[in-house]
Amino acid sequence: MNKENFNQSIDNIDVPLEKLIAREKAAISQARNRRKVGRTTKHSILIACGLCITLLGSGFVSSGMAAALSNIPFIGPIYAEFSDIASDKIERDKLATVIEKQDSHNGLTMTVKEAAYDGGRLIVTVEYSGEKELSLKEGNTGFNYVTINGKPFKSAIGSTGQDSINSKTIIEHHQFTLANYDEYGDKIEIAVHGEDLFGHKGKWKVDFPLEKVKGDMHEFYPGVKTEKGNGVYTLTADKVTFTPLSTRIDVTVDYPTELDENDTWKWFEFSVVDNHGRVYDRLKLQTGMAGKYGHHMVLTLPPMDTIPESLTLKPADINNEGFNEEIKELELVVPLDKKK
To answer: Where is the signal peptide (predicted)?
Structure first.
């Protein structure tokens, strides 16, 4: 199956993908804000991507992805393979910064290949190569993480995808939507840390400076809101940000404080439709939480070359059978005609 047919087949998956994402959400926890019943979750595009890798088997990598490693200064096909939300624009506009910095010992080399940052999203691509075969089996992959300016950072959405290029090479894709847009300014220091990786004992670290990608950035503050049940739930679209790596929508969700206390607040599923009827959902939409208890939600869509006149947010709740049911009362039209 070629790449185009594969992508089309993924888009055509209805019930299985929705059910798997719903089930996986309960298992993907946000460590910095872990709650008593695991309700704090990361619902990201790469969860869906990881599910696809699981369904299709280990080592599902196209020949284009394998060849990409030798095509520095740009390895665009990798972003598409991991279904990064900005993959098309990264490849077309050459947005990634070539890093090519490594740490090598104990028979394993960790190389940061490329990275991209636009104030709201951070993407890092890493290659691991070993003198002997590397394994992605559970328990062998070890532990790794990314820091900004020497410290852990808050993200609304974050995922890591890994897959084998060959028996001795693994590619890894980190992607984050930061909790607060432009918190770190135009220049940052990134470090990728690894410990006991793929059966190799030890610690690895690669650090490097990274500048914000060049490109147009636009901010809108619509401030529109809608409510359900006489104000039991209220959604407010606070800000819409267009950057080279994403379209970001910051949403405030208000509800009675007792729902915080007894942990019964809802995690809404969303789809977004622009004024031309284009739908953003599933692999074209990430949903994450920037604060506690779902009060500050972040929706991340692919970057857009042309800013639409409006975006319509369509919240939904997951029923007992794992299907999304739209909540018409909370549907919210967000006008984009007051740029600040």
So the answer is: none
* 33 and 70 co-located in one domain: yes
* Domain count across the chain: 2
- pLDDT tens, residue by residue, 120-129: 999 999 999 9
User: Over the range 86-121, which residues count as b (16 or more CB within 10 Å of their CB) and which as e?
Assistant: bbebbbeeebbbebeebbeeeebbbbbbbbbbbbbb
Nearest C-alpha neighbor of 156 from the set 312, 304, 37, 295: 295
What is the domain-level CATH number for residue 315? 2.60.40.1640
Give residue-wise pLDDT tens across range 19-49: 344 334 433 323 323 333 333 333 333 333 3
| Contact of 161 with 42, CB cutoff 8 Å | no
**DSSP H helices in the chain:** 3-11, 15-25, 45-56, 63-68, 77-81, 87-93, 258-261
At residue 302, φ and ψ (nearest 5 deg) are: -60, 155
